[in-house]
């Protein structure tokens, strides 16, 4: 049975066989434990915590979050989870919140709330730093809200409060700051941005999706953490993902609001159809309660002490990585990270090709996530360090040193000028999945079995294209990937 086989089996298959098939399929995935996949996954490294989350998830597997009056257990759990997050992030037991499926959903709802709280604004806009997460652009696209991206300081990668304030107009419904930004791990000057927003009567959302459940523990471990939470005057909402540094199973984020009116504007209700009256706090209607139970159990199983220890370990690992990268000729850390997220860029006379470096490191066991250049900010490779990263830091630094040497030895790689020009002229709307898939080898992407996952050609190509063309190319790629014309990567 391969992933190419389709359809339903004539008779049901035994569970052991299915689990064996899943094990075989996931063998080609990046590892989710052990800290060598330096993005996407957050491993607490504690089997007991994992077991508690798994048990709780399964215990609530069939419970439907659609109707909190039918399943009061979800109200009890959500109150506890939201309460725990609020208490740590400048709120209290009365702070209104929503448990959502992730950072993107929290951000969508924060933008919806801000938009719907100002129905008189015909063409609403949100003002975000250029380093804000893509989820704000998604919210803008989904909710028909214009996103005004304001350049950040090119040295520190932090938002510039005066520039943010200057970008606000009568149409602005929300101002955004990140704590920290994903790409560079730096915390924006939240207090100044929120004060400037409040001075104009505007709400301010803090995107603490990645940092909300990390920064408080780093501060306790002695790191300098600027104020960023609901205790900061002018901050009106804040998102904090538990499926990141909360170490909870995926599908867990909390959106906090300073007041009930704003949370009410995030809700949706519809009784204008003949079925059950719908009232939702989230984008999803029917939804499993597993992620909520998993997040609750993870918080309870780790406790403040557990998070404190994981925070201290991640901070120590980050300091060692930052110092080590600074000592590698040709590499530098972009900015000064406030959290345990590090962007590795290049410098010097003979900078190594970043995209080759990513492939080279992956081949040597460490996945470093490529981050394209945009808005005048240089390209980089992303590393998120968690509580289990410490053991791997020396190995990662050795891999980086060896990879830089190997990439340099192969010599510089020229940007694919002809291909870039060709792609600029292609009409992606008329190209179908089969034709697009046939083009990929020319772009240097070989997904055939055994080819290994070399992405340098594609990353170099994307980096050379204007962002809108990148987006069209990426969605075309996704469409081809889910069609029968491409092998699944690593298959
Ligand atoms: C700062 C920030 N905001 C939002 C998100 C989006 O979160 P998700 O992938 O859970 O939707 C992320 C994800 O990394 C993030 O780092």
TrEMBL record:
Its cofactor is pyridoxal 5'-phosphate. This is Glutamate/tyrosine decarboxylase-like PLP-dependent enzyme. One of its GO terms (biological process) is carboxylic acid metabolic process. It holds the Pfam family Pyridoxal_deC. Signal peptide: none annotated. It comes from the Bacteria. Belongs to the group II decarboxylase family. Sphingosine-1-phosphate lyase subfamily. It comes from Kitasatospora cineracea. The modification N6-(pyridoxal phosphate)lysine is found at residue 244. Keywords: Lyase, Pyridoxal phosphate. GO terms for molecular function: aromatic-L-amino-acid decarboxylase activity; pyridoxal phosphate binding. PANTHER family: PTHR42735, SPHINGOSINE-1-PHOSPHATE LYASE 1.
